[in-house]
Amino acid sequence: MGSLDQHGADVRFDWGVQGLESLVSGGARTVVIVDVLRFTTAVDVACGRGAAVTPFSADDDRAAGEEAGRRGARLASRQVPAGDTSTPSLSPVSLRNLTAADHLLLPSPDGATLATRAADAGLVVLAACLRNATAVANAIKAFPVAVVAAGERWPDGSLRPAVEDAWGAGALIRALSPPAATDPTMGLFAMFGETLGGEPPPPPTVARTLSPEAAWAAANLPTDLPKLLPKTASGRELGAGGWSLDIEVAAALNVSTTVPRLDKQGTFRA
């Protein structure tokens, strides 16, 4: 075991491909990918409609088209006019009319890359966002669990940590191990207001230990997500591009009971 794999904790949190590889090397049995704006939100919406979603990480339209043909899937468009939701794309709003008959190949440079890398490790791989955080948490049976925030990319291709992915991870982690009176992180939770909106999740039957990184993510979940998400760097970028509705969809906390899971063919299904 290495010093960076957060070994000893049931719930672990890190960023990007290198974080994923570190947590997997440390014995994680379940991987949860979080890419709030917009990959895992899109997967939640599509799978919630009964559709199948195959992640595709390569930035190559020809390769994506060939893979879609091989799988008998429809290729989600990577190039659509600003705000155009008439054609299935990475926009969650564009996927609202999918049905159980649909199979979508969904290109994404961040969340899809993590999903395909995690699939190669042969682990349970789930997709979580703000919309389905508690549902995914309640479905996790195999620990340790690696919660991996996708982040975004700087122009040079390096990882840009994105706060919305930390929030999505935090919502999931808080549902996995809600604060208790004896929890030493209770003071941190109290600083950030109420617990998850709506009905709180049932307490876990077994106390789950959090790495400090996971505890940090859980402690920093704000209560005013619809107000804050559009103000994030990623939110501003999407809003300027005409995708404000996608931000509104992504900010809805725990409105979905969908649990997308990668099957043996590398496709997310509910």
Task: Spell out the blueprint of helices and strands.
Elements: E1 11-15, H1 16-25, E2 30-34, H2 39-48, E3 52-56, H3 61-71, E4 74-75, E5 103-107, H4 111-120, E6 124-128, H5 133-139, E7 145-149, E8 152-153, E9 159-160, H6 163-176, H7 186-191, H8 212-219, H9 225-228, H10 233-240, H11 244-250, E10 261-262, E11 268-269
Parallel strand pairs: 1-7, 2-6, 2-7, 3-5, 4-5
Antiparallel strand pairs: 8-9, 10-11
Main attributes of the structure:
alpha/beta; 4-stranded parallel β-sheet; 3-stranded parallel β-sheet; 270 residues; putative 2-phosphosulfolactate phosphatase
Mean pLDDT: 90
Distance, first to last CA: 33 Å
CATH class of one domain: Alpha Beta
Regions with pLDDT < 50 over 5+ consecutive residues? 181-198
Share of helix, binned: 25-40%
Biggest sheet strand line-up = 1-7-2-6
CATH homologous superfamily of one domain - what is it? ComB-like
- Helix count from the secondary structure assignment: 11
Q: Nearest-angstrom radius of gyration?
A: 17 Å
- Outline type: globular
Q: Tally of extended strands?
A: 11
The major β-sheet equals: 4 strands, parallel
Order of helices and strands: EHEHEHEEHEHEEEHHHHHHEE
Topology-level CATH name of one domain: putative 2-phosphosulfolactate phosphatase
Please identify, by name, the CATH architecture of one domain.
Alpha-Beta Complex
The helix-and-strand class reads alpha/beta
Strand content: 5-15%
